Amino acid sequence: MNRPLLLTGLAIVCLLAAIVSMMVGTTSLPPARLIAAMAGSDDPVARIILFDLRLPRALLGLGVGAMLGAAGAALQGYLRNPLAEPSVLGASSAAALGAVIALYFGLAALNPLLLPACAIAAAVIALAALFAFAGRSEGPLTLILAGIAISTLAGAGISLALNLSPNPFAAMEITSWLLGSLEDRSFDHVRLALPCIAVGLVLLLWNGRGLDALSLGEDAARSLGVNLLRLRTRLLLGVAIGVGGAVAVSGSIGFVGLIVPHLVRPFTDRSPGAVMLPSALGGAALLMLADIAVRLIPASSELRLGVVTAFLGVPVFLVHLLRERRLW
Hints:
single chain, mainly alpha
């Protein structure tokens, strides 16, 4: 498919999904009322719903989805593994552990912004540990092993916090946050997360040509003038900062970084560099549509985003499995 046409189509889907996201909810805002609220009408209820609840939620949905989609595409290109996603390097698990620490020790009750701050700090610490474990090795296998070690350690820490929870309500609060949600987010969360996401996206998109060269092999990439150590450093920084900021405000939302590159890759020339930007737009659209779904699906309480994205990931896994079986 023509690349400008693909990017334009995905951008339109993102825009439409964001508009629908601001319209639907417990109190619906029809298009006329939504436009009037944006224009500063005298309807205070509509303005509060739009600017205090729905607009921050839509902005975070777009940003978090874009970051997860781009990170998944970049890691699949760098590690040359179709099952790679941000959790492979332990960034999302470490950020989740940081948030759980804030919940367990009551820091989130002192100031709501301490929770995302702890998540971002934990992601950065995980990045430092990843560099220490991987050393100066340029191969992807070392990174995968170091990432698995960090992810396992973070998972163990989360399990320990759940095991030592002083009461069932504390355990339920931690579990609910881990399932992922954009409910009740404000512009304070937007101001905290979007700069991290912007820095992460810039660092990842900067690697497009290097990842294309790396798809020919490490020796070929070096012969084309690619500095693999700098490429890896930018990639890890982008994933840690961007995904850390995203997880800090949304909780653990899996499968977006895994399935979106597979969905957009057939419409590109399949080179890693060409997949990243469409994956960012596709991730934003997918997360917005999932966030709309959690509000429209009838349930006693709002479903969690991580649950919906997990159900979306299963069909993609099955399609990939059937495709691989045809190649065996």
